[in-house]
C-alpha cells in the first residue's frame, strides 16, 4: 500500500516543468496585452504635454475646449472666449479628447 502511494506522488511531481511554462506564458501574455500598451500610451501622453504650444486647440479632462494662450512650466492658460482665460494644470489636458475634437486618431 505504501509503495502504491509513493508511486502516485512521483507521477504528480513530473508536471512542474509544464506548470512553469504555463505561468511563464501567462506573464508574457499579460505583459504584451496590458503592461506594454499602457507604457506606450503614457509615453505618448507625456510627449503631447511637452509639445503643447500657444495656439493649439485642446480639451481638458473635464471637457472644457479652449485655445492655448500661454504655456508655463506646469500650467497652461486657456482662452475660452475673447478675453476669458483660465489657468489649468498641464496634467488636466486630455490627449484622447483633444484628438477626437481635432478629428485625428
From TrEMBL:
Keyword set includes Protein transport: yes
Keyword Acetylation carried by entry: no
Membrane topology according to the record: Single-pass membrane protein
Transmembrane segments: 12-33
Cell location: Cell membrane
Cellular component GO terms held in the UniProt record: plasma membrane
Keywords in alphabetical order: Cell membrane, Membrane, Protein transport, Translocation, Transmembrane, Transmembrane helix, Transport
UniProt xrefs under NCBIfam families: yajC
PANTHER family: SEC TRANSLOCON ACCESSORY COMPLEX SUBUNIT YAJC (PTHR33909:SF1)
Full protein name: Sec translocon accessory complex subunit YajC
Lineage start: Bacteria, Pseudomonadati, Bacteroidota, Cytophagia, Cytophagales
Amino acid at each position: 500500500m505504501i509503495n502504491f502511494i509513493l508511486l502516485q506522488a512521483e507521477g504528480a511531481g513530473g508536471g512542474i516543468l509544464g506548470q512553469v511554462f504555463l505561468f511563464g506564458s501567462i506573464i508574457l501574455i499579460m505583459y504584451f496585452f496590458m503592461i506594454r500598451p499602457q507604457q506606450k500610451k503614457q509615453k505618448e501622453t507625456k510627449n503631447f504635454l511637452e509639445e503643447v504650444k500657444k495656439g493649439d486647440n485642446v480639451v481638458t479632462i473635464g471637457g472644457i475646449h479652449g485655445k492655448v494662450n500661454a504655456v508655463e512650466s506646469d500650467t497652461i492658460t486657456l482662452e475660452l472666449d475673447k478675453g476669458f482665460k483660465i489657468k489649468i494644470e498641464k496634467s488636466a489636458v486630455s490627449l484622447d479628447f483633444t484628438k477626437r475634437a481635432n478629428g485625428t486618431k
